[in-house]
Amino acid sequence: MRLVRLEAPGGLRKLKLVEEDRPEPAAGELLVGIRACSLNFHDGMVAAGKKPCADGRIPLSDGAGEVIAVGEGVDAFKPGDAVVSTYWPNWLAGEATPATKTGELGDDLDGYAREYVCMPWHAFTKAPAGYSHVEAATLACAGVTAWKSLVVCGRVKPGDTVLVLGTGSVSLFALQFAKAAGARVIATSSSEEKQERLGLLGADDVINYRSVADWGLKARDLTDGRGVDHVIEVGGPATLAQSIAACRMGGHIALVGVLTGFAGEVSIPALFSNQIRISGISVGSRTDQEEMIRAINANRLRPVVDRAFPLQEIAGAFSFYESQKHFGKICLEL
Ligand SMILES: NC(=O)c1ccc[n+]([C@@H]2O[C@H](COP(=O)([O-])OP(=O)(O)OC[C@H]3O[C@@H](n4cnc5c(N)ncnc54)[C@H](OP(=O)(O)O)[C@@H]3O)[C@@H](O)[C@H]2O)c1
């Protein structure tokens, strides 16, 4: 089988396409033919060598494909099933614990940039009905993160207003889940062209965060001064103050991302005096993924895929990701 290994210390030129033997499933495992993967910010950090990992690590946390064979004792899946990986293979349901936050694929463990993989059956769920493998590969990290932020922790309801920042994949999934829940969406983007596409996806209002310096207050103005009910905070230090400014008293901020860096100051009085509820998000459990997929099936949602590269062009796919020209997910097709 063909696969990609990342030689230490990382860097896009250290991504090597190699050939190795196909594995065989042990008891309790699935042999999955991986047909597609998707790229996430975290994978980009690993590939670029900014997040150290073992020499020869197989990158990418998100994979989708077809069950080829099942090991002894597996009855939840059968050959031919279309499946999608889960982000945390040991977080099956309920609250996270230190034990559930282990085995991050493409980082602590080998990921899915390979044609075949054997994993415990619970490291996969069924894919949404009628999805291509490329579409299914978009879900495990970005989709479940948006679902956990907005639906599980945010408890979004019809009539709520949701603020999503930029047009990365978490924000686009959050937009789609918010609209499916009957909420109003205010989105931001730095690009005029992407703003138009946000409108086509259902965003009710779009603010250019480059040309509108106080975009948080602008979002608040758009709610007649009440403030938004939810912010899906993917920006981090350079956006959090504006997200707080946008939020209504008692509103909810899902702390998700670090697009603008890892460290910064936050106004603690602005948080407590406005009684803002904060959820720290680290993707979600297998059950969260199954519930999200039920909602995707019921609402016939389709993910936004920018483009899919062949496996051997993985370095080019990461370069395109770094350019931030994408709208939606960047995938690999195997
Ligand atoms: N905690 C978790 O569980 C979890 C899970 C998944 C991802 N994340 C994190 O969430 C963040 C987003 O991930 P992603 O995959 O959605 O990212 P992505 O696809 O790389 O997002 C890129 C987009 O973000 C927007 N952006 C960049 N700087 C911005 C800023 N200052 N303000 C507003 N938008 C900005 C840009 O949109 P425009 O081009 O439209 O301006 C850009 O195209 C990352 O930091 C990632 O690590 C966390």
UniProtKB/TrEMBL annotation:
<dbReference type="InterPro" id="IPR036291">
    <property type="entry name" value="NAD(P)-bd_dom_sf"/>
</dbReference>
<dbReference type="InterPro" id="IPR052711">
    <property type="entry name" value="Zinc_ADH-like"/>
</dbReference>
<feature type="domain" description="Enoyl reductase (ER)">
    <location>
        <begin position="10"/>
        <end position="332"/>
    </location>
</feature>
<dbReference type="InterPro" id="IPR020843">
    <property type="entry name" value="ER"/>
</dbReference>
<dbReference type="InterPro" id="IPR013154">
    <property type="entry name" value="ADH-like_N"/>
</dbReference>
<dbReference type="InterPro" id="IPR013149">
    <property type="entry name" value="ADH-like_C"/>
</dbReference>
<protein>
    <submittedName>
        <fullName>NAD(P)-dependent alcohol dehydrogenase</fullName>
    </submittedName>
</protein>
<dbReference type="GO" id="GO:0016491">
    <property type="term" value="F:oxidoreductase activity"/>
</dbReference>
<dbReference type="Pfam" id="PF08240">
    <property type="entry name" value="ADH_N"/>
</dbReference>
<dbReference type="Pfam" id="PF00107">
    <property type="entry name" value="ADH_zinc_N"/>
</dbReference>
<dbReference type="InterPro" id="IPR011032">
    <property type="entry name" value="GroES-like_sf"/>
</dbReference>
